[in-house]
Protein backbone atom coordinates (compact mmCIF):
# COMPACT_ATOMS: atom_id res chain seq x y z
CA UNK A 1 0.00 0.00 0.00
CA UNK A 2 1.04 3.62 -0.44
CA UNK A 3 2.06 5.79 2.47
CA UNK A 4 3.35 9.33 2.92
CA UNK A 5 6.54 8.66 4.85
CA UNK A 6 8.21 11.56 6.63
CA UNK A 7 11.77 10.29 6.21
CA UNK A 8 13.24 13.16 8.20
CA UNK A 9 12.13 16.70 9.04
CA UNK A 10 11.13 18.47 5.84
CA UNK A 11 11.42 15.40 3.60
CA UNK A 12 8.43 13.32 2.46
CA UNK A 13 8.53 10.20 0.30
CA UNK A 14 5.57 8.32 -1.21
CA UNK A 15 6.50 4.71 -0.51
CA UNK A 16 5.09 1.20 -0.78
CA UNK A 17 4.88 -0.32 2.68
CA UNK A 18 3.39 -3.65 3.78
CA UNK A 19 -0.38 -3.92 4.17
CA UNK A 20 -1.23 -4.21 7.89
CA UNK A 21 -2.33 -7.62 9.12
CA UNK A 22 -5.24 -7.42 11.53
CA UNK A 23 -5.57 -9.34 14.78
CA UNK A 24 -8.77 -11.15 15.81
CA UNK A 25 -10.13 -8.06 17.58
CA UNK A 26 -9.07 -5.56 14.92
CA UNK A 27 -10.54 -4.03 11.78
CA UNK A 28 -8.77 -3.09 8.55
CA UNK A 29 -9.88 0.35 7.38
CA UNK A 30 -9.20 2.20 4.13
CA UNK A 31 -8.40 5.86 4.74
CA UNK A 32 -10.66 8.37 3.00
CA UNK A 33 -9.61 11.84 4.17
CA UNK A 34 -7.00 12.83 6.73
CA UNK A 35 -6.59 16.24 8.34
CA UNK A 36 -3.21 17.81 9.01
CA UNK A 37 -2.85 18.66 12.69
CA UNK A 38 -0.48 21.19 14.21
CA UNK A 39 1.37 18.17 15.62
CA UNK A 40 1.92 16.91 12.06
CA UNK A 41 3.33 20.33 11.24
CA UNK A 42 5.67 20.09 14.23
CA UNK A 43 6.82 16.65 13.07
CA UNK A 44 7.46 18.11 9.62
CA UNK A 45 9.58 20.87 11.11
CA UNK A 46 11.35 18.52 13.52
CA UNK A 47 10.02 16.94 16.72
CA UNK A 48 11.27 14.64 19.47
CA UNK A 49 9.43 11.60 18.06
CA UNK A 50 11.18 8.96 15.98
CA UNK A 51 11.67 9.00 12.20
CA UNK A 52 10.81 7.69 9.64
CA UNK A 53 7.20 8.53 10.48
CA UNK A 54 3.73 8.15 8.96
CA UNK A 55 1.58 10.77 10.64
CA UNK A 56 -2.09 11.56 10.38
CA UNK A 57 -4.46 10.95 13.29
CA UNK A 58 -7.47 13.01 12.14
CA UNK A 59 -8.93 10.68 9.55
CA UNK A 60 -12.16 9.19 8.25
CA UNK A 61 -12.16 5.68 6.80
CA UNK A 62 -14.24 2.81 5.47
CA UNK A 63 -14.14 -0.74 6.84
CA UNK A 64 -12.52 -3.25 4.47
CA UNK A 65 -12.16 -6.33 6.69
CA UNK A 66 -13.08 -7.36 10.24
CA UNK A 67 -11.27 -9.75 12.58
CA UNK A 68 -12.72 -13.10 13.57
CA UNK A 69 -13.64 -11.93 17.08
CA UNK A 70 -15.27 -8.65 16.00
CA UNK A 71 -19.05 -8.54 16.52
CA UNK A 72 -20.57 -8.05 13.02
CA UNK A 73 -23.67 -6.53 14.57
CA UNK A 74 -21.51 -3.61 15.75
CA UNK A 75 -19.33 -2.96 12.70
CA UNK A 76 -19.54 -4.28 9.15
CA UNK A 77 -17.53 -4.14 5.94
CA UNK A 78 -18.48 -0.92 4.15
CA UNK A 79 -19.20 1.10 7.30
CA UNK A 80 -17.78 4.60 7.41
CA UNK A 81 -15.85 5.04 10.62
CA UNK A 82 -13.72 7.30 12.78
CA UNK A 83 -10.99 5.81 15.00
CA UNK A 84 -10.39 6.76 18.60
CA UNK A 85 -6.66 7.43 18.40
CA UNK A 86 -5.67 7.34 22.08
CA UNK A 87 -3.96 3.98 22.60
CA UNK A 88 -5.07 3.79 26.22
CA UNK A 89 -3.73 0.82 28.17
CA UNK A 90 -6.94 0.31 30.17
CA UNK A 91 -4.90 -0.68 33.22
CA UNK A 92 -3.29 2.43 34.71
CA UNK A 93 -4.75 4.70 37.40
CA UNK A 94 -5.89 7.29 34.84
CA UNK A 95 -7.69 4.75 32.65
CA UNK A 96 -9.43 3.23 35.68
CA UNK A 97 -10.71 6.67 36.73
CA UNK A 98 -12.19 7.74 33.37
CA UNK A 99 -9.13 9.76 32.32
CA UNK A 100 -8.12 7.50 29.47
CA UNK A 101 -7.28 10.56 27.37
CA UNK A 102 -4.22 11.19 29.57
CA UNK A 103 -3.19 7.54 29.90
CA UNK A 104 0.39 7.42 31.15
CA UNK A 105 1.29 4.80 28.55
CA UNK A 106 -0.12 6.66 25.54
CA UNK A 107 3.18 8.04 24.25
CA UNK A 108 5.17 4.88 25.01
CA UNK A 109 3.91 2.94 21.98
CA UNK A 110 5.09 2.87 18.38
CA UNK A 111 2.79 5.76 17.48
CA UNK A 112 5.55 7.93 18.92
CA UNK A 113 8.74 5.85 19.11
CA UNK A 114 9.58 2.88 16.94
CA UNK A 115 13.30 2.04 16.89
CA UNK A 116 12.66 -0.88 14.53
CA UNK A 117 10.66 0.86 11.80
CA UNK A 118 7.91 3.37 11.12
CA UNK A 119 6.31 5.36 13.90
CA UNK A 120 3.05 7.31 13.67
CA UNK A 121 -0.72 6.94 13.52
CA UNK A 122 -0.77 6.00 9.80
CA UNK A 123 -3.64 8.27 8.76
CA UNK A 124 -1.30 9.35 5.95
CA UNK A 125 -1.43 5.86 4.43
CA UNK A 126 -3.98 3.90 2.46
CA UNK A 127 -4.87 1.35 5.15
CA UNK A 128 -4.73 1.14 8.94
CA UNK A 129 -5.36 -1.69 11.41
CA UNK A 130 -7.57 -0.40 14.24
CA UNK A 131 -8.91 -2.13 17.38
CA UNK A 132 -12.64 -2.62 16.81
CA UNK A 133 -13.41 -1.10 20.23
CA UNK A 134 -11.89 2.17 19.01
CA UNK A 135 -14.30 2.66 16.10
CA UNK A 136 -17.21 5.06 15.75
CA UNK A 137 -19.58 4.44 12.84
CA UNK A 138 -20.95 7.56 11.15
CA UNK A 139 -23.69 7.99 8.50
CA UNK A 140 -22.43 7.48 4.96
CA UNK A 141 -24.14 10.68 3.84
CA UNK A 142 -21.83 12.71 6.11
CA UNK A 143 -19.02 14.15 3.95
CA UNK A 144 -15.77 12.36 4.76
CA UNK A 145 -13.74 15.58 4.97
CA UNK A 146 -16.16 16.89 7.60
CA UNK A 147 -16.14 13.59 9.49
CA UNK A 148 -12.34 13.87 9.65
CA UNK A 149 -12.86 16.81 12.04
CA UNK A 150 -14.00 14.37 14.73
CA UNK A 151 -10.68 14.18 16.58
CA UNK A 152 -10.06 17.96 16.82
CA UNK A 153 -13.70 18.61 17.69
CA UNK A 154 -13.56 15.88 20.35
CA UNK A 155 -10.61 17.71 21.94
CA UNK A 156 -12.59 20.96 21.95
CA UNK A 157 -15.74 19.34 23.38
CA UNK A 158 -13.59 17.94 26.20
CA UNK A 159 -12.44 21.52 26.82
CA UNK A 160 -16.00 22.90 26.70
CA UNK A 161 -17.35 20.19 29.01
CA UNK A 162 -14.59 20.77 31.56
CA UNK A 163 -15.13 24.54 31.49
CA UNK A 164 -18.79 24.24 32.51
CA UNK A 165 -20.04 27.12 30.34
CA UNK A 166 -23.49 28.37 31.33
CA UNK A 167 -26.07 30.31 29.31
CA UNK A 168 -25.33 34.02 29.49
CA UNK A 169 -21.65 33.57 30.34
CA UNK A 170 -18.93 35.72 28.84
CA UNK A 171 -16.40 33.40 27.21
CA UNK A 172 -13.07 34.60 25.84
CA UNK A 173 -11.43 32.43 23.20
CA UNK A 174 -7.78 33.32 22.66
CA UNK A 175 -6.60 32.46 19.16
CA UNK A 176 -8.58 32.42 15.92
CA UNK A 177 -7.13 29.30 14.32
CA UNK A 178 -9.03 26.07 13.71
CA UNK A 179 -9.14 25.04 17.35
CA UNK A 180 -10.04 28.53 18.52
CA UNK A 181 -12.91 28.77 16.06
CA UNK A 182 -14.18 25.32 17.05
CA UNK A 183 -14.30 26.72 20.59
CA UNK A 184 -16.29 29.69 19.28
CA UNK A 185 -18.81 27.38 17.59
CA UNK A 186 -19.20 25.18 20.67
CA UNK A 187 -19.37 28.01 23.21
CA UNK A 188 -22.14 29.66 21.18
CA UNK A 189 -24.11 26.40 21.34
CA UNK A 190 -23.78 26.59 25.14
CA UNK A 191 -25.52 29.98 25.13
CA UNK A 192 -22.48 32.16 25.81
CA UNK A 193 -21.45 35.57 24.54
CA UNK A 194 -18.11 34.87 22.86
CA UNK A 195 -15.22 37.31 22.73
CA UNK A 196 -12.48 36.26 20.30
CA UNK A 197 -8.95 37.60 20.87
CA UNK A 198 -6.88 37.40 17.68
CA UNK A 199 -3.97 39.43 16.30
CA UNK A 200 -4.76 38.92 12.59
CA UNK A 201 -7.42 41.21 11.09
CA UNK A 202 -8.61 38.67 8.50
CA UNK A 203 -9.04 36.04 11.18
CA UNK A 204 -10.95 38.46 13.40
CA UNK A 205 -13.33 39.14 10.51
CA UNK A 206 -13.73 35.42 9.84
CA UNK A 207 -14.29 34.83 13.56
CA UNK A 208 -17.29 37.16 13.45
CA UNK A 209 -18.69 35.20 10.51
CA UNK A 210 -18.21 31.98 12.48
CA UNK A 211 -20.29 33.32 15.36
CA UNK A 212 -18.08 35.36 17.67
CA UNK A 213 -20.04 38.24 19.19
CA UNK A 214 -17.06 40.52 19.75
CA UNK A 215 -13.47 40.48 18.51
CA UNK A 216 -10.48 42.22 20.04
CA UNK A 217 -6.93 42.81 18.88
CA UNK A 218 -4.56 42.03 21.80
CA UNK A 219 -1.81 44.06 20.14
CA UNK A 220 -3.79 47.33 20.16
CA UNK A 221 -3.92 47.62 23.94
CA UNK A 222 -3.81 45.45 27.06
CA UNK A 223 -6.14 42.52 26.27
CA UNK A 224 -6.94 42.05 29.95
CA UNK A 225 -8.24 45.60 30.17
CA UNK A 226 -10.15 45.18 26.90
CA UNK A 227 -11.93 42.12 28.30
CA UNK A 228 -12.69 43.85 31.59
CA UNK A 229 -14.14 46.83 29.73
CA UNK A 230 -16.44 44.52 27.78
CA UNK A 231 -17.55 42.70 30.93
CA UNK A 232 -18.27 45.56 33.32
CA UNK A 233 -14.91 45.18 35.03
CA UNK A 234 -15.45 41.56 36.05
CA UNK A 235 -13.50 39.65 33.44
CA UNK A 236 -14.71 36.57 31.60
CA UNK A 237 -16.57 33.69 33.23
CA UNK A 238 -14.56 31.30 31.08
CA UNK A 239 -11.31 31.78 29.19
CA UNK A 240 -10.17 29.22 26.61
CA UNK A 241 -6.51 29.71 25.71
CA UNK A 242 -5.74 27.96 22.41
CA UNK A 243 -2.31 29.54 21.92
CA UNK A 244 1.11 28.12 22.81
CA UNK A 245 2.66 31.35 24.15
CA UNK A 246 3.56 31.48 27.88
CA UNK A 247 2.87 35.23 28.23
CA UNK A 248 -0.60 34.74 26.75
CA UNK A 249 -1.22 31.94 29.24
CA UNK A 250 -0.47 34.39 32.04
CA UNK A 251 -2.83 36.98 30.55
CA UNK A 252 -5.60 34.41 30.21
CA UNK A 253 -5.57 33.87 33.99
CA UNK A 254 -5.59 37.62 34.64
CA UNK A 255 -8.71 38.15 32.49
CA UNK A 256 -10.68 35.41 34.26
CA UNK A 257 -13.46 36.69 36.53
CA UNK A 258 -14.21 35.77 40.14
CA UNK A 259 -15.42 32.15 40.34
CA UNK A 260 -14.40 31.78 36.71
CA UNK A 261 -12.59 29.02 34.83
CA UNK A 262 -9.42 29.45 32.79
CA UNK A 263 -8.57 26.47 30.59
CA UNK A 264 -5.18 25.86 28.99
CA UNK A 265 -6.28 24.03 25.86
CA UNK A 266 -3.00 24.26 24.00
CA UNK A 267 0.35 22.82 24.90
CA UNK A 268 2.84 25.60 25.65
CA UNK A 269 5.95 26.10 23.49
CA UNK A 270 8.44 26.79 24.91
CA UNK A 271 7.04 25.53 28.19
CA UNK A 272 8.45 28.36 30.29
CA UNK A 273 7.05 28.87 33.82
CA UNK A 274 4.68 31.81 34.35
CA UNK A 275 3.99 33.95 37.42
CA UNK A 276 0.54 33.44 38.94
CA UNK A 277 -1.14 35.48 41.70
CA UNK A 278 -2.02 32.51 43.89
CA UNK A 279 -3.67 34.79 46.44
CA UNK A 280 -6.16 35.94 43.81
CA UNK A 281 -6.92 32.36 42.82
CA UNK A 282 -7.67 31.68 46.49
CA UNK A 283 -9.69 34.75 47.36
CA UNK A 284 -11.69 34.85 44.12
CA UNK A 285 -12.17 31.10 43.74
CA UNK A 286 -10.73 30.99 40.22
CA UNK A 287 -10.14 27.59 38.65
CA UNK A 288 -7.15 27.16 36.33
CA UNK A 289 -7.19 23.86 34.50
CA UNK A 290 -6.12 22.20 31.28
CA UNK A 291 -7.45 19.69 28.78
CA UNK A 292 -5.56 17.18 26.68
CA UNK A 293 -6.96 15.09 23.81
CA UNK A 294 -10.52 13.92 23.40
CA UNK A 295 -12.15 11.26 25.56
CA UNK A 296 -14.06 8.16 24.51
CA UNK A 297 -17.26 10.10 25.22
CA UNK A 298 -16.30 13.34 23.47
CA UNK A 299 -15.32 11.44 20.31
CA UNK A 300 -18.89 10.12 20.26
CA UNK A 301 -20.25 13.61 20.93
CA UNK A 302 -18.09 15.08 18.17
CA UNK A 303 -19.20 12.72 15.41
CA UNK A 304 -22.80 13.15 16.55
CA UNK A 305 -22.46 16.95 16.36
CA UNK A 306 -20.92 16.76 12.88
CA UNK A 307 -23.25 14.15 11.40
CA UNK A 308 -26.39 15.83 12.81
CA UNK A 309 -25.34 19.27 11.59
CA UNK A 310 -25.13 20.72 15.11
CA UNK A 311 -21.58 21.99 14.51
CA UNK A 312 -20.77 23.10 10.96
CA UNK A 313 -17.07 22.49 10.36
CA UNK A 314 -17.17 22.88 6.58
CA UNK A 315 -16.12 26.59 6.55
CA UNK A 316 -12.88 25.61 8.31
CA UNK A 317 -11.68 23.42 5.43
CA UNK A 318 -8.91 25.40 3.74
CA UNK A 319 -7.94 22.90 1.02
CA UNK A 320 -7.97 19.20 0.18
CA UNK A 321 -4.90 17.75 -1.58
CA UNK A 322 -4.42 14.30 -3.13
CA UNK A 323 -2.00 12.31 -0.98
CA UNK A 324 0.60 12.37 -3.75
CA UNK A 325 0.93 16.11 -3.02
CA UNK A 326 1.61 15.67 0.69
CA UNK A 327 4.56 18.07 0.70
CA UNK A 328 2.48 20.86 -0.90
CA UNK A 329 -0.31 20.12 1.57
CA UNK A 330 2.08 20.34 4.50
CA UNK A 331 3.61 23.58 3.25
CA UNK A 332 0.09 25.01 3.00
CA UNK A 333 -0.67 23.86 6.55
CA UNK A 334 2.55 25.50 7.77
CA UNK A 335 1.36 28.94 6.67
CA UNK A 336 -0.02 31.09 9.51
CA UNK A 337 -3.03 32.27 7.49
CA UNK A 338 -4.58 28.87 6.66
CA UNK A 339 -7.19 26.77 8.45
CA UNK A 340 -7.63 22.98 8.14
CA UNK A 341 -5.67 21.42 5.28
CA UNK A 342 -6.58 17.86 4.34
CA UNK A 343 -5.13 14.96 2.41
CA UNK A 344 -7.40 12.68 0.40
CA UNK A 345 -6.64 9.01 -0.23
CA UNK A 346 -9.92 7.72 -1.68
CA UNK A 347 -13.62 8.50 -1.95
TrEMBL record:
<dbReference type="InterPro" id="IPR013154">
    <property type="entry name" value="ADH-like_N"/>
</dbReference>
<feature type="domain" description="Alcohol dehydrogenase-like C-terminal">
    <location>
        <begin position="179"/>
        <end position="307"/>
    </location>
</feature>
<dbReference type="InterPro" id="IPR036291">
    <property type="entry name" value="NAD(P)-bd_dom_sf"/>
</dbReference>
<dbReference type="Pfam" id="PF00107">
    <property type="entry name" value="ADH_zinc_N"/>
</dbReference>
<keyword id="KW-0560">Oxidoreductase</keyword>
<dbReference type="GO" id="GO:0016491">
    <property type="term" value="F:oxidoreductase activity"/>
</dbReference>
<dbReference type="InterPro" id="IPR013149">
    <property type="entry name" value="ADH-like_C"/>
</dbReference>
<dbReference type="Pfam" id="PF08240">
    <property type="entry name" value="ADH_N"/>
</dbReference>
<protein>
    <submittedName>
        <fullName>Alcohol dehydrogenase catalytic domain-containing protein</fullName>
    </submittedName>
</protein>
<dbReference type="InterPro" id="IPR011032">
    <property type="entry name" value="GroES-like_sf"/>
</dbReference>
<dbReference type="InterPro" id="IPR050129">
    <property type="entry name" value="Zn_alcohol_dh"/>
</dbReference>
<feature type="domain" description="Alcohol dehydrogenase-like N-terminal">
    <location>
        <begin position="24"/>
        <end position="139"/>
    </location>
</feature>
